[in-house]
Amino acid sequence: MQYLGQPKSDVAIAKYAVALMILIRILLYLFRQFRIRIRKNENNRMDPPSAPWIPIVGSLPFMGRYPERVIADWGRNRGYGSVFRVRFGTMNAVVLNDLSSIHEAYVKNGHRMSGRIQTSLIQEMTNGNGLIFLDYGDKWRSMRKFGHSAFKSISANEHLNEIIAEESQMLVAALAKQLNNPESTDEYLCGNYKRAHPPQSLKSRYDLNNNAGEWKLLDPEEFMHKATGNVMCNLLFGRSFRKDEEDYNAVLEETPIQARKSASVFMLVFLVPALRGMPYVKDVIDEALCFRKDTFKMIKEVVDQHISDFTELKPESDFVDCFINEMKNVDREDANENSFFTYDQLLTYVFDIFTAGAETTADTLLWGLLYLSRDLKLQAELRKEIINIGGNNFFPSVNHMSKMHLLKATIQEILRIRPINTFGMPRTATERCTINGYDVPKGSVVLPNVWSVHHDPEVFPEPEVFDVRRHINEFGEFVPSKSVVGFSVGPRQCIGKRIADIDIFFILSSIIRNFEFRLPKVWQNSTKSFVYRELDMKGKNGHVLLAPEYDLEWRRIE
After folding, report:
1. Contact 182, 217 (CB under 8 A)
2. Which residue has the higher pLDDT, 484 or 29?
3. How far apart are CA 178 and CA 182, in angstroms?
4. Cα 240–506–356 angle (5° rounding)?
5. Would you state the pLDDT for residue 192?
6. Could you tell me which residues come within 8 angstroms of residue 241 by beta carbon, excluding any fewer than 6 positions away?
7. What's the pLDDT score for residue 194?
8. Is pLDDT of 270 > 90?
9. Using CB atoms within 10 A of its CB, is residue 276 exposed (0-12), middle (13-18) or buried (19+)?
10. Domains in the chain, ordered, with CATH?
11. Which residue blocks in 156-240 are alpha helix, DSSP H?
12. What is the 3-state secondary structure (H, E, C) of 300-361?
């Protein structure tokens, strides 16, 4: 067809020009992809391929609500492989998408892959103290060494066993009391427990006539947060807090609220720092920083009391006492290392452990209860194992852990199927290195896709199916999996892993021994009947992967 007012030859030239431009664009794109995938540098190392991205926002528009799952698909099904670059906003990260690449980066090259990103927001929050956000160097090595030693000493002490066991029994008693009298406010929650639904509304929403007098409705969320918070306080401070200590209880109640409210906003600013000053973003961050100051105030009061009462280190001493002992030990040979043990460092260190440890453990327990509520048969098998090993009057002990193979397998499956930190904490390369043949320059941001490892179908067939038997061998014994890496690996592996394992084991075993719990039935207008409530088991994603809000029906087991 001829354009109006144009000679036929001009029309042909225009068509050829457009075709030539398209061809050039295609060739440039293919050349760029060829360079990314094939080009080798002077050391014979390849650059990692790059996922699709656009300026400023990077690959975020292509990743949806669950970037860890999209990135896992890119690696397995779109040809990007186990190591490739993904732009999270303005941050260009190298993503490790399988176990071998994570092991090569964090274990074989652990000393080269232990840095942390340093931003103005991180500096504002930490002032260069703590542990989680400390960059790789002498101070981090000193604090890591101390923390590992302190936790190892405390976790090996029978006193910790008694603390967590006692807290587990207090939790059981509190749950039983609340179930016997749903209208009451249990002292265990210090009067702050807010039900998701007023008691009078439950009769119309839930089928409470099924096994009337036996099953009672209860939201376990705040019970889990209180239990893990008290364990962490005993670990750090050597004590839990009374119901009349309002500052502490306010902090404990507000911590999960702030975590859920601000996590995604902090991550957004982390990825696109320019958003820090936007009205809504600024308000959320300012509120979170204000809460942080309140938490520091509570920690400071407890630490000051410890310093005032400090006499000598005792075997049953807590984390704060261990740190104060280092502060007061002026005869250390390494004066430079000793200088890291400061008052401000102690406050931030305690804050890091308190907020990270208690929250992640509680969130793991909430996922565990939700999955177990869907399988009463598994609960019965677990209860049988607990009674066979621990007796009818079960009181949890670390000595039981190695003997309860089914329960250990269940906990590992909970950790696998819904890892709380789907990407772990970003690290930076402190030296240039090679991962699976790809060049990772110094300063590169590196992210492990924990979700991808936990849902690798070659390692875990039908990865979205909750199957505890995958962790049991033919002899009925629990098999620890190297492919469950929620606590990370290498030099920056979580120093509280052992304590978290004990905490989850004690609390979950105590609940299963004493209660049966299930998802309630809700009224469905379309069928005019009660059906089991459907929940979004994908979870609520932000910086961490949280279970959906839910209630359970509970029944006491004698």
Report:
1. yes
2. 484
3. 5
4. 55
5. 39
6. 230, 233, 248, 249, 252
7. 36
8. no
9. middle
10. 121-556 (1.10.630.10)
11. 158-180, 199-205, 221-237
12. HHHHHHHHHHCCCCCCCCCHHHHHHHHHHCCCCCCHHHHCCCCHHHHHHHHHHHHHHHHHHH
- What Cα–Cα distance (Å) separates residue 290 from each residue in 146, 258, 347, 544? 29, 11, 16, 21
Q: How far apart are CA 278 and CA 264, in angstroms?
A: 15
Contact 206, 554 (CB under 8 A): no
Spatial CA neighbour of 449 closest among 411, 423, 468, 425? 423
Q: Which amino acid is at 35?
A: R
CA atoms within 13 A on the CB side of 210: 16
Q: Which residue has the tokens 């002026």?
A: 330
Q: Count CA atoms closer than 13 A to 394's CA, side-chain side.
A: 31
Smallest Cα–Cα separation from 127: which of 292, 317, 328? Answer: 292
Extract the tokens encoding 338. 């000793």
Local structure of 275: helix, strand or coil: helix
Question: Residue 519: how many CB atoms within 10 A of its CB?
Answer: 16
Rounded-to-integer distance, Cα 412 and Cα 486, Å: 10
The answer for residues whose C-beta is within 8 angstroms of residue 224's C-beta and 6 or more apart is: 362, 365, 366, 369, 507
Q: Which residues touch 468 (CB under 8 Å, ≥6 apart)? A: 378, 406, 409, 410, 412, 413
Please say if the pLDDT value at position 203 is more than 80.
Answer: no
Determine contact, residues 521/531, Cβ cutoff 8 Å: yes
Between CA 252 and CA 230 the distance in angstroms is 9
**pLDDT classification of 266: cutoffs 50, 70, 90:** confident
Extract the tokens encoding 154. Answer: 């405390």
Distance CA 546, CA 219 (A): 15
CB 436 within 8 A of CB 101: yes
- What mean pLDDT, rounded, does the chain reach? 84
CB half-sphere exposure, 25, CA atoms < 13 A: 6
| pLDDT score of 249 more than 90 | no
| pLDDT confidence of residue 339 | 79
Counting beta carbons within 10 angstroms of the beta carbon of residue 62, is it exposed (0 to 12), middle (13 to 18) or buried (19 or more)? middle
Could you tell me the pLDDT band of residue 175, with boundaries at 50, 70 and 90? very high
Q: How confident is the model at residue 494 (pLDDT cuts 50, 70, 90)?
A: very high
Can you give the C-alpha Rg of the chain in angstroms? 27
Q: What torsion do the CA atoms of 159, 480, 417, 255 make, to the nearest 10 degrees?
A: 20
SS3 content of the chain, % helix, strand, coil (to 5): 55, 10, 35
Whether the Cβ atoms of residue 241 and residue 248 lie closer than 8 Å to each other: yes
Q: Average pLDDT, stretch 73-85?
A: 94
Q: For the segment 279-335, what is each residue's pLDDT rounded down to a tens digit?
A: 888 888 888 888 888 889 889 999 999 998 887 656 557 899 999 988 887 545 555
Distance CA(126)–CA(120), nearest Å, equals: 10
Phi, psi of 77, deg, nearest 5: -115, -10
Tell me the three state secondary structure of residue 17.
helix
Q: Which two tokens stand for residue 350?
A: 């305690």
Rounded distance, CA 427 to CA 48, Å?
Answer: 17
